[in-house]
Design goal:
This protein has helices at about 5-10, 70-75, 155-165; strands at about 15-25, 25-30, 35-40, 55-60, 65-70, 85-95, 95-105, 105-115, 135-140, 145-150. It is mainly beta and about 170 residues long. It has one domain: Beta Barrel (OB fold (Dihydrolipoamide Acetyltransferase, E2P)). It has a 5-stranded mixed beta sheet with strand order 8-1-2-10-9, with no helix packed on it. A 5-stranded mixed beta sheet has the order 3-6-7-5-4. It starts with a helix and ends with a helix.
């Protein structure tokens, strides 16, 4: 018989890793196990009639990958892409469907080792502020890092529309 108190304690003390990046003055993190690669910004092929946050698609080793500008997705000011602008390629799941997407971020910072017990729930702002993309938050040194739920960056309808257009 397993002692559940010991099991829960071990889980609370486990270390999780996140790739951290910035959008403007804000710090974000995604589960490192979801990151497939990090690429410098390159022009993408635009797709008509897609949400504004979807910059287009990129052909990565014969896989058509939708590219999402997180600044636009999060309703932040759009900026000119700089040499530090990168695309983080992620593995995501929508329902039972596994897909690959790319997210445009200002800069990649580093890999964070976070004790699971240090991750706090996203604050409840009520129905006016959308927190569906947030898995949690963690304070590290003098900064607050928002941990994203990568599976929710594109909803199933958006993913399905892109797949129809790109064949």
């Amino acid at each position: 018989m397993v002692n559940t108190a010991i099991s829960e304690n071990t889980q609370q003390n486990s270390i999780l890793q996140f790739l951290s990046f910035t959008l403007g003055d804000d710090d974000y993190g995604v589960d490192i196990l979801r990151v497939q690669e990090i690429r410098g910004w390159e022009e993408v092929r635009s797709i008509p009639n897609t949400p504004e946050c979807i910059k287009g698609v990129l052909n990565l080793r014969n896989i058509v990958v939708p590219i999402i500008d997180l600044r636009i997705r999060f309703l932040q000011e759009e900026v000119k892409y700089e040499p530090t602008t990168v695309i983080v390629v992620l593995s995501v799941e929508n329902g039972n469907v596994k897909s690959t997407i790319g997210i445009v971020v200002d800069t990649v910072s580093d890999v964070l080792d976070v004790q699971q017990s240090n991750i706090k729930d996203a604050p409840n702002f009520g129905s006016k502020i959308d927190t569906r993309y947030i898995n949690g938050m963690v304070s590290l040194d003098d900064r607050m890092v928002i941990l994203l739920d990568t599976d929710k960056l594109l909803n199933p309808e958006e993913m399905s529309e892109i797949e129809k257009m790109t064949g």
